[in-house]
Amino acid sequence: MLSGESFNEFLKDLSNLGSAIVDIAAHNTHCAINIMQNNIDSYKLFDYFLVLVVKRRKESEDSLNIIKALLKLGVP
Questions:
Q1: How big is the chain by its Cα radius of gyration, in Å?
Q2: Which of 36, 43, 47, 62 lies deepest, with the highest CB count within 10 Å?
Q3: 50 burial class (0-12, 13-18, 19+ CB within 10 angstroms)?
Q4: SS3 content of the chain, % helix, strand, coil (to 5)
Q5: Cβ atoms 2, 32 nearer than 8 A
Q6: How confident is the model over 3-39, as pLDDT tens digits?
Q7: Among the residues of the chain, which ranges form H helices?
Q8: How far does Cα 41 stand from its chain's mean position?
């Protein structure tokens, strides 16, 4: 378990692993995406991104913003 601020170091460590499942808590998502924006192509360390979408309005808007941010990073 890491804080959002530790995500940059985690990205470096992740590149040395054969496989991993990474769960980023909702409150750390924006921090993680900001760090990935500063590390070009870091999203390529991940095979898949799973974004939880629920019916409530705020959570749905948050999910949509996460998807838009991932698209800006270059995630297909």
A1: 12
A2: 36
A3: exposed
A4: 60, 0, 40
A5: no
A6: 666 777 888 888 888 888 888 888 888 888 888 888 8
A7: 7-14, 29-37, 57-73
A8: 12
Sign of CA pseudo-dihedral 58, 47, 20, 72: negative
For residue 72, the one-letter residue type is K
- pLDDT-derived band at 66 (thresholds 50, 70, 90) equals very high
Cα angle: 56, vertex 58, 59; to 5 degrees: 65
d(CA 16, CA 8): 14
pTM of the predicted structure, to 2 decimals: 0.79
Tokens of 39: 């590390």
Mean pLDDT computed over 25-54: 87
Cα 60 from Cα 17, distance rounded (Å): 32
